[in-house]
Amino acid sequence: MIFQKISLWLTPLFLINFILVFQQIAMGSTPVCPAQLTENINAIADRPQFIRARWGILVQQLNSPKTLYSRDAEKYFIPASNVKLFTSAAALQQLGADFRFHTSVYQNGDGVLVVLGKGDPSLTDVQLKLLAQQLKQKGVTKIKQLIADDSYFQGNMVNPSWEWEDIQSDYGAPISSFILNENTFSLKLVPSSLGEVAQVIWDDQDEAKKWQIINQVVTVASDQPTYIDIINISRDLSGTVLRVKGQIGVKSSPYLLNLPITEPNNHFLYHLRTALLSANLSLAKVGVVNGGKYQTEIATIESPPLAELLTYMNLNSDNLYAESLLRTLSKKKVDSLDQNSDQVGLEVVKDSLSQLGVDPKSYVLVDGSGLSRHDLVSPQALVEILQAMAKTPNASIYQGSLPVAGKSGTLANRFRNSSAQGIVQAKTGSMTGVFSLSGYIEPPNYQPLVFSIIVNESDQSGTVIKQAIDEIVVLLTQLKQCG
Predict the structure, then answer these.
(1) Following CA atoms 48, 53, 54, 59 in sequence, which dihedral angle do they give, to the nearest 10 degrees?
(2) In the prediction, which pLDDT does 229 show?
(3) Mean pLDDT for the chain overall
(4) CA 113, CA 136: separation in Å to the nearest integer?
(5) Angle at CA 103, nearest 5°, toward 101 and 270?
(6) Mind listing the domains of the chain with CATH numbers?
(7) Is the pTM of this model over 0.70?
(8) 10 Å Cβ neighbour count for 313?
(9) What is the mean pLDDT of residues 20-39?
(10) What residues contact 399, with CB distance under 8 A and at least 6 apart?
(11) What's the pLDDT tens digit per position in 198-242?
(12) What DSSP string runs through 114-168?
């Protein structure tokens, strides 16, 4: 708790009691009447350090439109990853909790196989090995040509409004019909002799061939800190030069870097070729096409059901999963074959949410993950989605996909040892100057709540902003019906 000013006349005993009272509030041991809520929340949001920040807050009862607190709830804010609440709701409504992605291989003439990707974000090398084994069991021994059909998703692999810094990072990996290992690759920086540059070890030899790496990571004494962060990692516009700066302690463990690939189709084909060769299947050549008609499916692998995918996505705030689901939603419009899949997916999201009663004017989305700063969302829209989804057959799946305070996902290290632990399920969101938290609360002495808190344009650190947001949420867990 940050105290801005305490008068000099306060006695030490008074000061100790003052601190204990605020500690009790933070831990959730002091009941709060609904009539006190406005004053208590304003006391947090109106602190002097937040004078430049914009707060958007809405708190309502889950099962009624009764508002307990509202602050600019109808205004637009950049929501960051709270956008995933929109994508999750539309995916459950349109695709169903049992939906699975399929990646299939078709026989197309003598010795020619076509693999059709459908944007499965969970696909890994493990599944490719299973696919190779299926082909072997079907009697395939020689493949004259393996063709990858990437026509399922059309349009942009990255949203044009994403920032350059984001698309250089693993959380901004490209989205395509073929997604493998979340379309990222890894390399390790290993300390060498004191004063020498670190060694670079690639986990993907195909990627190693594509990149020119400028290694400026120096091995330093063991008592010096290791620092290699996103600021010191950069790619040029061609996507083939990687510059890494920093330092690593001589006795430090290897430093792992995860970076986005630049050619999803070739990345997928290289790894599938490797899986086929390991299964003793010979392969002559590979190629990429965009579209075709295939009839004889001879092998297929499927993803976990959507319910599990959403849990992974929301617990880890995974952007690639969200963007893949957005593009998959485009398939619900039969006349969208030649249009950008992400744009059609956004139309489906809006249609789906409108059917749930969410005001289409209360938000403007340009992507499915919240990585874009062009997304604009009101707390009202988020609360409406949370309330609407609670009335659907998928209510438990939707709420269950969200992080639990103090226990799981992006909330695992927040709200520990407070009254919010275990009774708050909410989606986090963060980027520079933007922090959000929206979800469900089940206060022990009050009826269930839905809430949305968004902070924009703050010059404070993430730690300070999140602490203030968490204090508000803890207050909500302390609600008690007063006479």
Answers:
(1) -60
(2) 64
(3) 90
(4) 13
(5) 130
(6) 32-96+309-477 (3.40.710.10), 102-157+263-304 (3.50.80.20), 186-259 (no CATH)
(7) yes
(8) 27
(9) 70
(10) 389, 390, 425, 439, 440
(11) 999 998 888 898 888 889 999 999 889 888 865 567 777 666 888
(12) EEE----TT--HHHHHHHHHHHHHTT--EEEEEEEE--SS-S-SS-TTS-HHHHT
AA identity, residue 316: N
Residue type, 66: K
Secondary structure element (H or E) that encloses residue 454, with its range: strand 449-456
Task: Give the tens place of pLDDT for each residue, 384-398.
Answer: 999 999 999 999 999
Which tokens sit at 108? 């197309």
Quick one: DSSP state of residue 425? Answer: E
pLDDT, tens digit (0-9, with 9 covering 90-100), for 248-305:
999 999 999 899 998 999 999 999 999 999 999 988 899 888 888 887 899 999 999 9
Distance between CA atoms of 366 and 55, rounded to whole angstroms?
Answer: 22
Q: Is residue 321 classed as helix, strand or coil in its secondary structure?
A: helix
Q: Tell me the two tokens of residue 90.
A: 């539309």
E runs forming strands in 72-123? 102-107, 112-116
